[in-house]
Amino acid sequence: MAESDANAEAMNGCDVCAVKCWTAEGCFGAGTYDWKFLCMPQAPCLKKVSPPMFLGKDSKLPLFVSLSFGLQHMLAMCVGIATSGGMLHANEACWIWNYDSEMCKSQSFLVSCSWIASGLLTMIQVFRCKIKGTPFYIGTGLVSVMGTSFTFLPIGQAMVASSIGEAKSANDPRCIPNSPYKGGPATTMDCQGVAVEAYGKFLGTAMVASLFEVLIAITFKTTFVKKYLFPPVVVAMAIMMIGGALIASGIKYLGGGVFCGQNMMSKVPVFGGPHICNESGDVQLAFGAPEHWGLALSVIFFGILIQCIGSPFLKSTFLFWSMCFGMIVASIASYTGTDGVTKSYWNSARIDAAPVLTFPWTFQQFPPGFDARYFFILLICSWITTAETIGDVKMTAAFSKIEDQDEIESRQQGGIMADGVNSIIACLLGSPPNTTFSQNNGILALTRCVSRSAGFSCAGWLLFIGLFGKIGAIMASVPMPIVGGVILQCFTMVFVAGIQIAGPLLNGPAGRRNGFIVMLSLAFGLGIAMEPQVVQSNGVSSFHGKNLDFNYGLWPGWMTCKVFPSVTVETSPATCTGMSPAGITASLDSADCALLGGTYTAAVTASQEIKTCANSNGFCCLVWDDTSRAVRLSLLIIIKTPYGVAVLVAALLNALLPFETDGDDEDVKGGAAGTESAAA
């Protein structure tokens, strides 16, 4: 083994955690670390504070320095993990029209599971070890913190939401009518355990799809993988469109909630009024109400204030403190309706019901299953999240001042392997697949601390908050407009990270070719995000939108139906002829016709299929062609998901368009590994 390799091996593991915490220097960094930069406000009118010294990846940090940097990383990512890590999946089963009481009650539990999973998996990623008997690593050995992947969120939500509708149409005995809705006075159809089973299928199918990342990690250094699967432009588009696809969800949360936002107008023709949002405590208002805007803007404006006058610590964790401020505003504010009743934006039911301590498998189990209809799209999600990891690790390596290309590729290989293995572990813990969090690279740039000690501390903080069930319940109880104000910024940060990676690719000899690929990928990705009904006629609307999906669109649902409902229709009516006086013809029954001396001719009828769905919420087929229906579902999800179609377009164009100059080849030589240095 070369000396450099030996040194690299020696500095893996958790050796950076060994400090003399019983001394002032080992505990607080007295005499070695300048706390002024981290904690002093940096308003324009104040004297600038010199940045702290660079703390390398193998630096052993004083205990409180390590804990403070780890806390920064945790606070910057805990909201994103909570929302994408099960909370919003369970939320799909909390509607009076689409209700599974078991899944709905799991929201706070799933938040805790996701925090615990992310903490454990961050340790694996930061630890880094060589797989015995192979040249492969698992983990990056850098501050590559892990969190639930945004990429899988829309697919998991779709699987949970559609399962209840399918159970109702199949008369599933688990669907119990006239059940109390969330313990209140209203009643609904409660499909108990149906969405729980669907979420288990989502986890199981995602586990199988995650094996793709393991395969890529093994073959990462091959030309095919570098040049065709993960070239620079595909990596950039993957990260950019993950954020771009989810910005629409963020603005819907800001307006009051996704479901009421998507179905506000589709309810009007039937009931004459908008769908009311019910995710802000006891207050129920229409989507886009000024009260919803007020809560969301309180979050955003407080974040702006922090960026103006806050310390580097506050700036790097502004999402968390902004959310806390919004929660304070919501707890103080109230709403008085036209009936004179004052209602609160907070509802403590989940917090009161949550246990003090929790752990995966203790509250609700989600037995892994498999749903072939969603496998291909989840496989594409694994491909996209692999591209995201490649870009993230490159940026983290740049901040860690690692310049050797072979070492960067080795750490990318370890990061992809850990992503795949960690995603399987995450699903077993009840959390969606995990990936590296790109937004945390901003903390590395700001603090100049890339010590793995901070990564281990971040993992410890995530485990700490995950073990306390009340914390997860508080997160699940936050009014939806406040969540919207936070994650709108969170998702947009991912989009901006993609822009930073794509920017350098548009310059130089390869700029024209890459620019064309980016242009066409964005055209389809953002275009379909803005007008999803160009693919499916119901777009994102599910309230009375399934009829449109059945009747119209790129691939209408009726085309996958084998047996339609039928009705009996008259092709010619019954007649009575030959009555006296002569020449009179009338439509009489046979008895009356005989009394008048006429000749009775019975009506001629025929059975006619009804292929147009109306007022049946899409349930207008008696027997489906299961194969074509599954293919249709997978294809439409891929095309309708902005990052699915955009990344496919980018990969296809990259394979088809010729490399025009040697400059292009230089871009490709390092494969996806050479993409983001300019962005860093």
Features:
disordered N terminus, three-stranded antiparallel sheet, two-stranded antiparallel sheet, mainly alpha, 19 strands, 10% strand
List the helices and strands and how they pair.
Blueprint (H helix, E strand, L loop, with lengths): L2 H8 L13 H5 L7 H4 L23 H29 L2 E2 L2 E2 L1 H4 L2 H21 L1 E2 L6 E2 L7 E3 L4 H17 L5 E6 L6 E5 L2 H25 L4 H7 L2 H24 L2 H14 L4 E5 L2 E4 L3 H20 L2 H5 L1 H15 L1 E3 L5 E3 L4 H5 L21 H25 L5 H24 L5 E3 L4 H7 L4 H16 L1 H9 L2 H26 L5 H20 L15 H6 L9 E3 L2 E7 L2 E5 L4 E3 L3 H6 L3 E3 L2 E6 L13 E2 L1 H15 L1 H15 L5 H8 L11
Antiparallel strand pairs: 1-2, 3-4, 5-12, 6-7, 8-9, 10-11, 13-19, 14-18, 15-16, 15-17
Task: Tell me what the structure shows.
The structure is a single chain. This protein is mainly alpha-helical. It has one domain (10-15, 30-342, 350-553, 632-674). Helix content is 56%, strand content 10%. It has 27 helices and 19 strands. Helix 6 (107-127) packs across helix 20 (469-477), helix 10 packs across helix 16 (375-399) and helix 14 packs antiparallel against helix 21. The protein is globular, with a radius of gyration of 29 Å. The two termini are 31 Å apart. Residues 1-8 and 663-680 have low confidence and may be disordered.
